[in-house]
Amino acid sequence: MTRGARILNEMTLSQIEAEELRELWQLNAERNISESDLIKLTLELEAQLIEIKNQNEELVQAMETCEVAKRKYSALFENNSCGLFILSVKGVIIEVNSAGAAILGLKKSMLINRNFKFFISEESRVDFNNCFNTLFDTQCSSKLDLKFRKPDGSSVFVHIDVAINEDKKTCYLSASIIADQKHAQETLQITENKYRKLHESLMDGFAHVNMSGEIIECNEVFCTWLGYTDEEIKNLGYTDITPEYWHKHEEKIRVDQVMKRGFSEVYEKEYRRKDGTVFPVELRTILMRNDDDLEAGMWAIVRDISQRKQVESELKQNSEKYRTLIEFAPDAFFQCDAGGKMIIVNNSVIELTGYSRAELLKMNLADLIPPDLLRDKPLQYDLLKMGEIIKSERVIRRKSGELINIEMNSKGMPDGTYQCFTRDVTGRKHAEEVLRESEERYRELADSITDDFFSLDTDLKFTYCNKSFKNNIGIKATNIIGKSIYDVFPDIKGSLREMVYLDVLKTQQPGS
Q1: 3-state SS class at 31
Q2: pLDDT reported for residue 19
Q3: Total H helices, total E strands in the chain
Q4: Calpha distance 311→287 (Å, rounded)
Q5: pTM score, whole prediction
Q6: What's the CA angle centered on 60, arms 59 and 66, to 5 degrees?
Q7: What pLDDT score does 512 carry?
Q8: How many CB atoms lie within 10 A of CB 309?
Q9: Sheet strands (E) in 165-266
Q10: Least confident of 14-23, 358-367, 405-414, 460-469
Q11: Which burial class, exposed, middle or buried, applies to 184 when counting CB atoms under 10 A from its CB (0-12, 13-18, 19+)?
């Protein structure tokens, strides 16, 4: 029964034959099951959509707040005049600002994952170790003056403050140069020649080969990567540690680049470890000459890029997942530049508009909207730039000229573009129109009945009443709808009528 129990006024039952009344109830029951399900489903879907929208808005707001806080923290950390470091329990540098990198004399990228203790001079190392170990044991802040050793051989005196982090697994360390007489007297002093400084300070692998390709020397990092001892590796050539499928490529680089101009471009290849496994590296080869300007050997400065390759692979996989998700999404997806020119479209856009992908990528989103409709309701690029998420309904014209109703959800992106998910709502609009017309016909039919007719919800509140009912009880519809049957008929409590109504609601069967 439509939106509750439909009850015929008991005063008129004697005027209708039993067979006709039974057929009328059956017709209404069959018809109203479909309408009730449709209304219920529509309301449930609308409630779910509202909930999802609210959750998305809360998530976006939380992410934006987090991003603002992160930017503020990063700015404060990076722009501090003191050298700032975040160290692990083992003293490994997790994060460093520009001032800290300047104090140590290396780029930030070369300091990350490197042990901070490496830069402390031998005479200060015992004091620092005691201070550092005490910090994690007692969790009390410490201060100390010590001497740093830079990669170029020079040294600098600094004052450090060390404090434990809340996670008890990292600590903050601030360092400031001591500008006193002691520091002024001990300026940049080179303790080793240039070759030795480079050899000892490189965090990357270093290898020196003669012109026959035999390894003359290398640093500890290089040996560790390959799994050989220093003595073992000096019995090998660079072809022994390079998989065969790289030999031709590397020989071409040696001939065309190293021998002609003295160095190579940075290139990628693979090394083979002692256990037979291979790993990717990035290197540059430099030609060495003796005092007579003759070729004396080659240097190779090598970087293990295994982690970078893994990250690149993960990024590629994520990108492919993203592209697949977008490409096969049931909704049409546009990504447009700041002016509305389409730069990415998925298959659903092609199906929705009837244009090919090549045609769409030459078009502006505004080209799909009829000019008169666009003039009355222009695209809101200004709101997208302000970070707003815009949901709107529009009409677009397909390539065939057919007009269709769409629902658009648009959001600006950090790179100045914006993304838009679009859904064809023509069917929904049609269903809404059919439903509206059906309701109109239903109301006209109900109002044309000369008998009293009304409907109640499950709480026995009025949801509808026809003209005959309103006229007979002398109450306006606005004063009835939403009121309980007990408010309109106070004497119904405990009556047979109340029992009939409650039984109909419980059994879903007609009653009289």
Answers
A1: helix
A2: 52
A3: 19, 18
A4: 32
A5: 0.36
A6: 90
A7: 78
A8: 15
A9: 170-177, 205-209, 215-218
A10: 14-23
A11: exposed
